[in-house]
Amino acid sequence: MTTATFSTQRVDPYNPPAELARLQREDPVSRVPWRDGFIWAVTKHADVRTVLGDARFSSDRSLPGHPMNAGYTSAAKLKNLIEMDPPDHTRQRVRVMGEFTVKKIAGMRPRIEQIVESAIDDMLASGDAADLVTALSLPVPSVVIAELLGVPYEDHDFFQVNSATFVEIDTSMEQKLEAMGNLRTYIAGLVEARMENPGDDILSRQLAAGAGAEELTGLGFLLLIAGHETTANMISLSIATLLDKPELLEQLREGPDLIPGAVEELLRYFTIADVGHQRLATADIEVGGELIRTGEAVYAFGHVANRDPDVFDDPNRIDFTRGARNHVAFGFGPHQCLGQNLARLELEVVLEAVIRRIPTLRLAVPFGEIPFKEHGPNYGVYSLPVAW
Ligand code: HEM
After folding, report:
1. Pocket around ligand 1: residues whose beta carbon is below 6 Å from it?
2. What is the CA(80)–ligand 1 centre distance, in A?
3. Residue 223: how many CA atoms within 13 Å on its side-chain side?
4. pTM score, two decimals?
5. 60-116, pLDDT tens digit by residue?
6. What is the share, in percent, of the chain residues with pLDDT greater than 70?
7. Is residue 188 situated within a structural domain?
8. What mean pLDDT, rounded, does the chain reach?
9. CB-side exposure of 219: number of CA atoms within 13 Å?
10. Residue 2 placed within a domain
C-alpha cells in the first residue's frame, strides 16, 4: 500500500503526473489515499485493460460507494450509456453502435471537410491572429454533433454557444449549469419533434429501432458531452505540439500519408481522460497480483498506461510511425469510446487542412505560456493564441 497522497494534476505539459509514472514502476496496482478514503490506482497497460474489460468493475454511478456517486445529483439521473452496466448497457449500446461504424463515419468525410474548410475560411478572414480554440477546435466538433443529431441549421448558433459555455474558462458554474439545462431541454424537444416527424437522422433511426424518448435524450446529450470538448482538446493539443516541434510538423507536411498515424500517436501521447476511468468493484477480483475487494473504488489511469515501456518502446517519444493502435486513449472493453472513428476522422481532416492551408501558422505565445487544463477531468488547453 502506498500511503503518500498524490495528485492527478499535470505539471509538465507533455507528460502525465510523475507520481503516477512512479507508481507504475514501483507499485502498479496500489491502494492510495484519495479524498477522504482510499482508491486502487491502476497504472500498467495490461492491468488497465483488465479493469476496463471486466464489467464487474461497475460504471453505475448511482451505486453507493461508486467514486462518481458524490456528483450524482437528481439532475444527472437521466442515465446514459457511460454510467450503465450490462445488461442495460449492452442493449442500448448494440442499438446505437451501427451509427458509428468505420464505414458509416467514413461517409461523413466530405461534410466534415466542408465544415473544417469553412471554419478555416472564417478564421483567416478575421485577421492575422486568433484563438484557435474558439475559431476551430470547439466549433468543428460542435457542428459535427449538431448535424449528427439532426439539429436544424438555424439552431446551430444556439447549440454551439451553449456547448462552448460548458468548457470556456471564463464562464461561471451558474452559466455552465444553465447552458447544460438549455441543451438538455433542447435535445428533449428535438426527440419529441422526431417522434411526430421522423427524419433521416440518428434520433429518428433510434426511435424506429425501439429507443424510448428519455433514453434518447440521454444519448443525445451524452454524444454532445462526450464528443465535443474531448475532440476540441485533442485538436488544440495536436496543433500546439506541431507548432512547438517543427520537425514533427515538417514530417506531416512532407508526408501527409503519415497523418492517420500521427493522430493515433497524439491520442496515445496525450490520453486526455485525466482523472482515470472510475469504477466500483462489485466482486472480489485479482488485478496484477492484488486482490481488489467488493465495494472498493478503482481508478484506471489510461494516460500513464499509454506510456508503459512494456508495451510502447521509448514511450515518452512522439513517433508517428510506431503504429500505436493498441493504446487505451479511448478506453477499452464494453465502454470503449463509441465515437472513436468520428474523433479520428475529425482530427485527420483538421490536421490535413491546417497544414495545407496555413503554412505560416505559429504560436503567438511561448508554448509554456499556453493555459493548459492541468486539473482535469480532461486535459487540453483553455485557449491557443496563434498567428499567421
Ligand atoms: C466513451 C475518450 C470523442 C462518444 C469514451 C471513453 C473514453 C473516451 C476514454 C471511455 C469512458 C469510460 O471507460 O468510462 C474520447 C476521446 C475523444 C472522444 C479522447 C476525442 C478525441 C468522442 C466522440 C463521441 C464520443 C466524438 C461521439 C460523438 C462517446 C460515448 C462514450 C464514450 C457515447 C460512452 C460509451 C459507453 O459507455 O458505452 N470516450 N472520446 N466520444 N465516448 Fe468518447
Report:
1. 52, 59, 81-82, 93, 145, 222-223, 226-227, 230-231, 234, 272-273, 277, 329-331, 335, 337-339, 342-343
2. 12
3. 27
4. 0.95
5. 988 988 888 765 554 455 578 999 999 999 999 999 999 999 999 999 999 999 999
6. 96
7. yes
8. 92
9. 27
10. no
Which of 144, 337, 342 has the most ligand 1 atoms within 8 A of CB, as the residue to mutate? 337
pLDDT for 161 equals 86
Does any domain span residue 163? yes
Q: Is the pLDDT of residue 28 over 80?
A: yes
How far apart are the C-alpha atoms of 77 and 106, rounded to whole Å?
A: 34
* 386: β partners: 130, 363
> Any residues with CB less than 8 A from the CB of 338 and at least 6 apart, and which?
81, 93, 96, 97, 100, 226
Here the CATH number for the domain that contains residue 81 is 1.10.630.10
> What φ, ψ does residue 334 adopt, rounded to 5°?
-60, -30
Of the candidates 225, 231, 227, 222, the residue with the CA atom closest to the CA atom of residue 137:
231
- Over residues 219-260, the pLDDT tens digits come to 998 898 889 989 999 999 999 999 999 999 999 999 999 999
- Specify if 365 maps to a domain: yes
Domain containing 190: what range?
A: 18-387
Domain count, the chain: 1
Q: What is the pLDDT of residues 270-311, one digit of tens each?
A: 999 887 789 999 999 999 999 999 999 999 999 999 999 999
Q: Nearest-CA neighbor of 205 among 111, 105, 96?
A: 96
Q: Which residues make Cβ contacts (< 8 Å) with residue 361, sequence separation at least 6? A: 239, 243, 354, 386, 387, 388
Give me the residue label for grid cell 518502446. Answer: 313
Residues with Cβ within 8 Å of 229's Cβ and at least 6 positions away in sequence, in order, are 138, 166, 167, 378, 380
Contact criterion met (CB below 8 Å) for 300 and 276: yes
Query: What are residue 26's phi and psi, to 5 degrees?
Result: -105, -30
Q: What local confidence, expressed as pLDDT, does residue 74 receive?
A: 45
